[in-house]
Design a protein that fits this description.
This protein has eleven helices and 13 strands. The strands form three sheets. It has a seven-stranded mixed beta sheet with strand order 8-7-6-9-10-13-12, with helices on both faces. The protein has a four-stranded antiparallel beta sheet with strand order 3-4-5-11. α2 crosses α3. The radius of gyration is 19 Å and the shape is globular. The chain starts with a strand and ends with a strand. The structure holds zinc ion. The site of zinc ion (ZN) has 7 residues, from loops.
């Protein structure tokens, strides 16, 4: 969806109509304010005004999305994330035999490294040249930089494509899905994981939802919206996974802390590796740390319970993972 001007109007790029349902208004971020509006037909929402290229480049060059030394968090959390990748490899191979897989927005290449160890031939794309060179130097991976579409990879050359928490960051998610369809062989698997705007986490958190990530998330998908988009692109839905080890419990925990009035994403910033924390360290006040420590014994078990209860009772989750095949 493109922003038409600096006002609150947003046009849905998926159908070309105006996104008329106001989801959130005037959310201040980095000295600017943003709105989120949803298209009543496509059930996908857009951030507007759309951040400029310069603004996004600045956001990605520091903060959550970058690291040179390879670690975003401490060792324990990194190990848990690694375990999650191993389990995901198992889920993927339940649907399809090892072949060639593309990871769009592969970051440091950790997922591709895990897949290669499982007998897959791997390829990644990554917008950041710095992160891409880390993946190729440290893991000896083939990583293409920049936009996937400009590389014009051969059609029907892939068995699987993974897009993990990336689609919502792209300026052209519809075009990327069309390209995925072209690149996959018939019966090839597409795995997409995105935050779900219909989740209880969002309903409770609103602008304080950990996975909202304004203004980096240009689009805000719903399960219905993403399913519709996949079907429109000729994909058949095989499975929807609504619990995510990496995002569900922590998403709940940080959202609960955020709605309690503690500095936004304080715990997340404390858990990040020192290199990533950088300039943010000075904003951390002892009062916020104390309040976090006092609330953790209540919120941590509550977050675990809610992470399990949300998919079990409401069939929703802060983050969903959809497995679909090219028909
Ligand atoms: Zn639309």
């Amino acid at each position: 969806m493109k922003q038409s001007d600096k006002s609150s109007k947003a046009i849905c790029i998926f159908c070309g109509k105006e996104a008329t349902i106001s989801v959130l208004k005037n959310i201040p971020k980095n000295g600017k304010t943003y709105n989120i509006s949803e298209c009543a037909e496509c059930r996908i929402a857009v951030t507007h005004p759309f951040p400029s290229g310069d603004e996004l480049a600045r956001l990605y060059s520091c903060g959550n999305y970058r690291t040179n030394q390879g670690k975003r968090f401490g060792n324990l959390i990194e190990s848990l994330i690694h375990l999650g990748r191993l389990i995901k490899r198992g889920r993927i191979t339940k649907h399809i035999k090892p072949g060639r897989i593309l990871d769009i927005g592969c970051g440091r290449g950790l997922f591709l490294d895990v897949m290669r160890r499982g007998g897959w031939s791997v390829l990644g794309t990554e917008l950041s040249k710095e992160t891409a060179s880390y993946a190729s130097e440290v893991y000896d991976l083939e990583v293409l930089t920049g936009d996937l579409i400009k590389h014009q990879l051969p059609g029907e050359s892939l068995d699987a494509i993974n897009i993990n928490q990336v689609l919502e960051h792209l300026k052209n998610p519809a075009e990327v899905l069309t390209e995925c369809r072209r690149l996959l062989r018939k019966g090839g698997l597409l795995v997409i994981s995105v935050p779900d705007l219909r989740s209880l986490q969002f309903t409770v958190g609103k602008e304080n939802w950990f996975l909202l990530d304004l203004p980096c998330h240009l689009f805000h998908f719903t399960e219905e919206g993403l399913k519709g988009l996949l079907k429109k692109n000729g994909f058949h839905i095989r499975r929807i996974k609504r619990f995510n080890r990496e995002y569900s419990p922590f998403g709940w925990l940080q959202t609960l802390l955020n709605v309690s009035g503690i500095r936004f994403n304080l715990l997340y910033d404390l858990l990040k590796s020192e290199e990533l924390r950088g300039a943010e360290t000075e904003q951390i006040k002892p009062g916020g740390i104390l309040a976090t420590l006092l609330l953790l014994p209540i919120y941590f078990p509550l977050a675990l319970i809610l992470s399990v209860a949300e998919p079990a009772i409401w069939r929703r989750s802060g983050s969903i993972e959809i497995y679909s095949v090219k028909e």
